[in-house]
């Protein structure tokens, strides 16, 4: 049997496929790739309203790497495409707020490209986990409304 410690160390040991995918994306893509990009600090935390008071008037769907990390920790992503859409949102927001050629946008583009490369590198593993998720969702849908358990308190 796989222990809790093994599940924490290697996300592929986790039995819940959604947790497995999110931990894998968090560890392999976020931690090892995106958070280590030089000069990526403007995208690691949410934009400070104090430092840029007009940002949230212009950007209606803010996104940053810590928010993506939090979403991974909460098992929010059902596919790598959803994860990459959030990474791409960082780029789109920078393009909109800073302009296409701004140094921040160039860095945001690098973050998005590295995210895509990471997903591509682990495509086989990710596709397999996504299949597990779809299978478990299909099983859940078949169970809806058929509670055959006898949990009555009538003794």
What would you note in describing this structure?
There is one protein chain. The chain has seven helices and no strands. It is mainly alpha-helical and 155 residues long. It starts with a helix and ends in a 12-residue tail after the last helix. It has helices at residues 4-9, 17-34, 55-58, 65-73, 80-98, 103-121, 123-143. The longest helix is centred in the last third of the chain and has 21 residues, at 123-143. The relative contact order is 0.14.
- Write the H/E string, N to C: HHHHHHH
**Strands, total number:** 0
Major sheet description: none
Strand content range: under 5%
Overall mean confidence score, pLDDT: 88
Structural class: mainly alpha
Number of helices: 7
What is the rounded Rg? 19 Å
Task: For this entry, give a set of tags.
disordered C terminus; mainly alpha; 155 residues; 7 helices; 0% strand; 62% helix
């Amino acid at each position: 049997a796989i222990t809790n410690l093994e599940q924490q160390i290697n996300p592929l040991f986790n039995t819940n496929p959604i947790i497995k995918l999110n931990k894998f994306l968090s560890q392999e893509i976020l931690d090892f790739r995106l958070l280590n990009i030089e000069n990526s600090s403007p995208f690691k935390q949410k934009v400070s309203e104090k430092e840029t008071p007009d940002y949230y008037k212009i950007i209606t769907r803010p996104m940053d790497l810590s928010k993506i990390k939090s979403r991974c920790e909460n098992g929010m992503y059902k596919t790598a495409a959803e994860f990459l859409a959030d990474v791409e949102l960082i780029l789109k927001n920078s393009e909109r707020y800073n302009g296409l050629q701004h140094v921040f946008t160039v860095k945001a583009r690098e973050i998005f490209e590295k995210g895509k490369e990471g997903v591509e590198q682990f495509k086989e593993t990710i596709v397999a986990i996504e299949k597990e998720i779809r299978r478990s969702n299909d099983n859940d849908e078949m169970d809806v409304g058929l509670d055959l358990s006898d949990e009555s308190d009538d003794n």
